[in-house]
Design goal:
Distance between the termini: 39 Å
Strand content: under 5%
Largest sheet: 2 strands, parallel
Shape: globular
Structural class: mainly alpha
Number of helices: 15
Helix content: 40-55%
Strand order of the largest sheet: 1-2
Oligomer: single chain
Order of helices and strands: HEHHHHHHEHHHHHHHH
Radius of gyration: 22 Å
Number of domains: 2
Number of strands: 2
């Protein structure tokens, strides 16, 4: 836990908070290696899942059925989705039918966890709008989801380490994004494999253990350990901080989540570490804005 300092803000040099507190050791390791090597840029695989059409929903079946009608193609996509997700054909078909009956426009879902109920209520009627989410009536819902995924990757275009050298995200470059968006959603699920087109493109360049990888490590256990070891400090920083003072946080919900006799969920851990980083970022920027001018 020595590498995690809840008073330190990731992305303190940026005009908005980014990331979560558990990423501090990861970012520190990058900066250390960069300093040792004289690095002048960081290259990242940020946005890979987003650009390569990663999905575990039935939207690809809805797309293919809407585009081609029922038939062999739609049945093949149904089989691919069942193979990839482990869901049964009836469940996938019902989900696809529900998607097909809705507007193709992607509806962004807000995350109100640990936000003050009055704040959530005041924002409830404000549309979560963005030009990229304005799908034409003839658009396929899977393509709207794909575009929204690319949009979702934008907060990761910079990181804490970008204060010492530029962070380059080649997978989010225009030629790659445009090419990937032109590929039908069902082709990304071909053969029952997620990101199938990308896997096929590099089939002769990557070892099988990389090419066929289905899972990867997760920071969830580390996040849980931070919460357990720094529970009291986390409580104090959030409940007595700037975000709570300005009516942004649901103090009662945070108090309940951080009870010593209560285990937090993975989703709660992620949110709490995101909020404590935002709190630290707020303090940095408040001190900069109100610092005496010389």
């Amino acid at each position: 836990m020595a590498g995690v300092d809840l008073s330190r803000a990731l992305g303190a040099h940026l005009p908005r908070p980014i990331g979560r507190a558990e990423a501090q050791p990861y970012e520190a390791a990058h900066r250390e290696v960069a300093a040792r090597m004289g690095t002048d840029a960081f290259f990242s695989g940020n946005g890979g899942d987003n650009v390569f059409g990663f999905s575990q929903s039935a939207v690809a079946l809805a797309d293919r059925a809407l585009h081609e009608g029922p038939g062999a193609g739609a049945f093949a996509t149904l089989r691919d989705i069942c193979r990839q997700t482990g869901a049964g054909p009836l469940r996938v078909t019902r989900a696809a039918m529900a998607i097909a009956r809705q507007s193709p426009a992607y509806r962004w879902k807000p995350s109100p966890a640990f936000l003050h109920p009055d704040l959530v209520a005041s924002l409830r009627h404000l549309p979560l709008a963005h030009p990229w989410l304005e799908a034409p009536p003839t658009a396929l819902p899977g393509k709207a989801v794909h575009i929204a995924g690319v949009l979702r990757a934008h907060p990761n275009l910079e990181s804490d380490r970008s204060r010492i050298a530029p962070l380059v995200n080649p997978l989010l470059s225009q030629p790659i994004v445009e090419t990937c968006l032109s590929i039908p959603s069902w082709q990304w699920r071909a053969g029952g494999r997620d990101r199938a087109v990308a896997r096929a493109a590099f089939a002769t360049s990557l070892p099988a253990m990389v090419l066929d990888r289905k899972v990867k490590g997760t920071p969830d256990p580390f996040c849980g350990a931070i919460i357990r070891h720094k529970r009291q400090e986390l409580r104090e920083r959030l409940l007595d901080g700037q975000l709570a003072a300005h009516g942004l946080l649901d103090s009662a919900a945070i108090e309940d989540a951080l009870r010593a006799d209560r285990a937090t969920s993975s989703a709660e851990n992620v949110r709490l570490l995101e909020l404590v980083n935002a709190e630290a970022w707020t303090i940095v920027w408040a001190s900069s804005v109100f610092a005496p001018r010389t």
